[in-house]
Amino acid sequence: MLSSLRISARRAAAAAPSAGNKLHKGVVASSSAGSSGSIIEQTACRAFATVPGPRLFDYDTVTSVLKQSDAVEAVEAAFGMLAKGKVDVPIPMHIGIDESEKAGPGDCHIKGGYISGTSTWTVKLANVSFYKNVEKGLPAGSGIFVVCDATNGAPLAIFQENRFLTDLRTGAAGAVSVKHFAARHHKKVGFVGAGVIAAAMARGSKCVHEFDEGFAYGLDVVKTKEWADEIEAELGYKVVELDWLRPHATIIASGSDQPTKNEIPAEVQKASKMVCDLVRQCEQVGELRSAIKAGVMTRDDVYAEIGDVVNGDKPGRTGEELILVDLTGTGAQDAAIGQVAWDILSKH
Ligand SMILES: NC(=O)c1ccc[n+]([C@@H]2O[C@H](COP(=O)([O-])OP(=O)(O)OC[C@H]3O[C@@H](n4cnc5c(N)ncnc54)[C@H](O)[C@@H]3O)[C@@H](O)[C@H]2O)c1
């Protein structure tokens, strides 16, 4: 049975160039009559697919055209839709890649989503932690976004973005958090970890709030100083280093996106007004996971999802309370940035 299916598929594909219209019409007729089309007809439907192939956008194009500010509004709206239950966002998929003498261990993260009413949906592949690449002069991570047409199901574009779009949508989630949870009079911002995401957070924050002083804490003093100098030159506020971060009224935690990670002590989580990007994801891979595991919180202790605040269903900051925003990175953000990337880059 299996082998005859294979043979049919090959024959149909081989016959395609000379018998296109006839077979195509046959398939349309049979599909409207139900699922009674023959195997050859169904296979021919694939062989004669007429949707255009996806456009390929390389890394240089993606990174030279898109900016942090392009992402903020779309990601804010995506959070709003997420809280209304209007985003189809599956829990992320993870594929672990073996470690060998020369490669791995690697992680492949697959996230995606569809925001109701938009013209596209997005699936992204983020391949990370290939640390042995560095010895070969290659980055440890790479990635693509596939953006598909929600009207006909065809893949519209493949963006070779190597985490750049993820950086933009994560920086945008930071911006949305600052907008709704930092008090207007808060003028100091701190960064724990002076890496790529911290820079995206700094750029995102600049779109919604004027900080005048920043604090950066990193493991490597020289690199942290370089990071602080760059941010100071680019964003115009002074960034100094701290030997330890002082308590701050709004903590935006985006480091924990795997069940192995935790940056915020459970007691700090318990003491804060806690906001999640997506509770069902945070309890599996976010900071919340470790507070639940420590037995100091349950999911019912979470104050709100960020979209509830974006939608005005719950207030954001109401006074000088400690607020913790647990950002694990949702498929809703990926869908939003995928749509933005398509809207902007398809015109190029
Ligand atoms: N939630 C999300 O949506 C999301 C999105 C992307 C990345 N991430 C996660 O965010 C984290 C940072 O990603 P990145 O791309 O900025 O990485 P990066 O390697 O560019 O930067 C990490 C920084 O953290 C510092 N650091 C490491 N351990 C530290 C410690 N104990 N104390 C203080 N600083 C420390 C390093 O010195 C470095 O400056 C990763 O865990 C990544 O998986 C989350």
UniProtKB/TrEMBL annotation:
Keyword Lyase annotated: yes
Gene3D superfamilies: NAD(P)-binding Rossmann-like Domain, ornithine cyclodeaminase, domain 1
InterPro entries assigned to the protein according to its UniProt record, in alphabetical order: NAD(P)-bd_dom_sf (IPR036291), ODC_Mu_crystall (IPR003462), ODC_N (IPR023401)
Matches recorded under SUPFAM superfamilies: NAD(P)-binding Rossmann-fold domains (SSF51735)
Domain of life: Eukaryota
PANTHER family according to UniProt: KETIMINE REDUCTASE MU-CRYSTALLIN
Family in the record: Belongs to the ornithine cyclodeaminase/mu-crystallin family.
Name of this chain's protein: Ornithine cyclodeaminase
Gene from which this protein is expressed: OCD
